Predict the structure.
Amino acid sequence: MKTILFMGVLLMFSLLSCKKEITTPDVHSKLIFGKWKLIQISSGYSGSGQPVTNEETVEFLSNGKSRRYVNGKLDYKLNYKLILQDNLFGSKTLTVDYKTMEDYAVFDLSDTSLTLSQTVYDGFSYSYERISN
């Protein structure tokens, strides 16, 4: 009897400790999962580009964790979720929702490229290329 009880408790802990994938609004939005290298920064209304002066990468994990590295060193770790949010044009935009900092709208997402834009007027856009899944 003790063996059955022990096995039940062990099974419960193993199920609770499984990493869950976050809920995504659609199948396409799962393309964000992976590691991305920053290749271009564009500024608000002028749209002029800025040089990328540091090696920056961002990683979106399927369990809702993200990490940003600058010159190979961890800069921050944040939790996020993906949501569809109303935009200024009356439609929905896929958004990376960080609870502790500003959100970023996903303007472009494919197998090889990602563009995130600040969700403020005259905000910056950040373009990335995929370096791993």
Summary: Strands lie at 34-42, 49-50, 56-60, 65-70, 73-86, 92-98, 104-109, 113-118, 125-132.
